[in-house]
């Protein structure tokens, strides 16, 4: 059984059909990439999984349980966390307080401390800046903070929306290396990313979204060598 099953979902904004019959699966321990142009429906798909948007029809199951109509905070407590596009850290709070906000659903202080040490292990810069106001961090540091905050809920799967956006090439490589480490440590990853080349380099499988439908799917390595993907998304 797949960890996450999206089946034939339709999502609309008023009269606009943003997602039209999208179906895909994510298995435990995978990195799955969703790639596509701006406006293809990638972020809408993530928001629908995390409960921020309701589909008009279709089904979303997590570990066999239907979550299509479940409230977002309950979805987080079930083990799904999202790193939003544009980072969206709490800019007036310290780095440490931002991280603690990510653990708001958890009750065991010892486990929270353990998660904090794990996050600091992946992002040493956050430890160095734990008392700094989040709004004063660089873009790359804010991206790391957004990832760390999501990991503080101890999710089974993390949904990442454009983690490389606005980062220097060096930082992009660093962030993608950490995503691989996070997956190896046991957290499944669903990655939405415009940097298709980087996404396909670390993903196990990938789906290509075009105008709200899945146009292509397959092993990431196969899609990397697909002429249509090369032309449209890899700049070749």
Q: Secondary structure elements and their pairing?
A:
Layout (H helix, E strand, L loop, with lengths): L3 E10 L2 E11 L4 E5 L6 H8 L7 E6 L2 E2 L5 H7 L1 E4 L11 H8 L6 H14 L1 H5 L10 H13 L5 E5 L7 H16 L3 E5 L3 H7 L2 E6 L2 E7 H5 L2 H7 L3
Helix pairs in contact: 3-6
Could you characterize the architecture of this molecule?
The protein is an alpha/beta fold. The protein is built from 10 helices and 10 strands. The strands form 2 sheets. The chain has a 6-stranded mixed sheet, with helices on both faces. It has a 4-stranded antiparallel sheet with strand order 2-1-4-5, with helices on one face.
Offer a concise description of the structure.
By secondary structure, this protein is an alpha/beta fold. Helices cover 38% and strands 26% of the residues.
């Amino acid at each position: 059984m797949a960890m996450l099953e999206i089946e034939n979902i339709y999502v609309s904004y008023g009269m606009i059909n943003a997602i039209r019959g999208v179906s895909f699966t994510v298995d435990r321990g995978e990195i799955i990439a969703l790639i596509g142009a701006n406006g293809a429906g990638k972020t809408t798909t993530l928001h629908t999984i995390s409960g921020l948007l309701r589909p008009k029809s279709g089904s979303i199951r997590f570990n066999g349980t239907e979550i299509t109509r479940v409230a977002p905070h309950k979805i987080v407590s079930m083990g799904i966390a999202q790193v939003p596009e544009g980072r969206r850290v709490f800019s007036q709070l310290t780095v440490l307080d931002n991280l603690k906000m990510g653990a708001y659903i958890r009750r065991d202080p010892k486990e929270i401390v353990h998660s904090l040490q794990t996050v600091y292990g992946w992002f040493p810069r956050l430890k160095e800046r734990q008392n700094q106001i989040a709004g004063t961090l660089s873009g790359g540091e804010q991206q790391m903070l957004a990832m760390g905050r999501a990991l503080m809920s101890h999710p089974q799967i993390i949904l990442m929306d454009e983690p490389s956006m606005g980062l220097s090439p060096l930082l992009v490589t660093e962030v993608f290396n950490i995503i691989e480490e996070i997956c190896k440590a046991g957290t499944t990853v669903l990655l939405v990313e415009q940097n298709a080349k980087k996404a396909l380099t670390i993903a196990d499988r990938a789906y290509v979204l075009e105008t709200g439908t899945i146009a292509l799917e397959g092993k990431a390595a196969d899609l990397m060598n697909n002429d249509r993907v090369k032309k449209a998304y890899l700049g070749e």
